[in-house]
Design a protein that fits this description.
230 residues, 1 helix, Elongation Factor Tu (Ef-tu), domain 3, three-stranded antiparallel beta sheet, 13 strands, alpha+beta, 3 domains
Length: 230
Amino acid sequence: MLDENFISASMYEESQAELRALQEQLQGARSRLETAERDLRNTVITAPLDGIVDQRHVGVGDFLQTGQPFIRLVSGDRLRIHLPFPETVATQLSPGLPVRLSAPFTPLDSIAGEIREIRPALSTGRAVEAIVEIDNPGQWRTGGSVRGTVVLAQRRSVMVPEAAVVTRPAGHTVYLVDGNRVLARQVTIGRHQNGLVEILKGLEAGQKIALDGAGFLTDGALVSIAEARP
């Protein structure tokens, strides 16, 4: 239009000045939009996992410092279990020890885990807390109670029913089945667990012993072996 004299040079320069001003305004608006979008993103807290807010540490209007926790988020899929222990066993606990866990409503079903870390237990009145993390078996709820058994050591031992070990003047005795007779064998016992007793000395694995009526037997007594019931 300038070349064809439809507008004057002054009008053209004025239009170019207005265009530059609008472009600067557009750039400023875009910058303000980016700042507003960044500020908006900073107002949204994205959790690293699915779960529920178990505890809130701050209120509306509080100022937070960098690294300060403000909520505790718990997941229903991954559970963190706190097992309190007294100081008498604190020195025996360490990360990596195996743990068997059971819930009150399923006492016969146990879940295997291991100690992840050891922490001071200031709020429970106990010396330490063993922290265990497991995948939710499906029925356990956040905030529920569990029973935990820490395996401090493992060893292979001969275990027999407690009823098979009787007390005689010579000490603890079991009766080995030898054909149709029994032979008295003095043994050294160890730990008791779930109706079984550990034999530390005097009995080898695989040996056949008398159980029913063991308290009425004597060395060399005749016995009969009952057929196994189907």
